[in-house]
């Protein structure tokens, strides 16, 4: 899915993109795919953007697969940091809003390397979950999953933690936008605590990169540790850590999920 530029001036660019049902999540386009399109549109408009450090997402309304309009706005361009916003539009309706910060490297006295995730052999023996059309979300056909710890969605588990290996099934290489989508590809931990199918949706999502990679093969297995921190009044708060195929921390994720049951 590649956005096509329709018009642009000094501060605003407008894109159109055709999306397909295989990226759907229920009645809307998978949130990670929405974020991926927003980042792609930003980079297509301003190719010289430095690496992405943070992306804040608010999902306003469902947006079905089909033609999507993307409006990108330059908020500020400083000496080292560029901040942009993107709106995904379904006609005149705003479906999602994204605010991204891209930043150049600079000298600093502060350096702290986060702990790596032990790769181990557990994932090699874990069973890969199948894609079942009509049962699992359509977009999951693009990802493979190995459950290492925690309960499967809607199985009535009791532990608020999931440890999952995942990778993109589609061959090729992963760039920055692919990794954004990958970071949103696991189900919310709250779903593992529910007994039976229950509607849920992401209200907001924040992603922070702690390092950057050149385009990398899609064959490698990534790892996510996700924890449900709180749940009350139908709203669930979770955070997650995304580790690269080398076991090094790649990104931090924080999410607010609404559960309708």
From TrEMBL:
<feature type="domain" description="Acyl-CoA thioesterase-like C-terminal">
    <location>
        <begin position="125"/>
        <end position="259"/>
    </location>
</feature>
<dbReference type="InterPro" id="IPR049450">
    <property type="entry name" value="ACOT8-like_C"/>
</dbReference>
<dbReference type="InterPro" id="IPR049449">
    <property type="entry name" value="TesB_ACOT8-like_N"/>
</dbReference>
<dbReference type="Pfam" id="PF20789">
    <property type="entry name" value="4HBT_3C"/>
</dbReference>
<dbReference type="InterPro" id="IPR042171">
    <property type="entry name" value="Acyl-CoA_hotdog"/>
</dbReference>
<dbReference type="Pfam" id="PF13622">
    <property type="entry name" value="4HBT_3"/>
</dbReference>
<feature type="domain" description="Acyl-CoA thioesterase-like N-terminal HotDog">
    <location>
        <begin position="20"/>
        <end position="102"/>
    </location>
</feature>
<protein>
    <submittedName>
        <fullName>Thioesterase family protein</fullName>
    </submittedName>
</protein>
<dbReference type="InterPro" id="IPR029069">
    <property type="entry name" value="HotDog_dom_sf"/>
</dbReference>
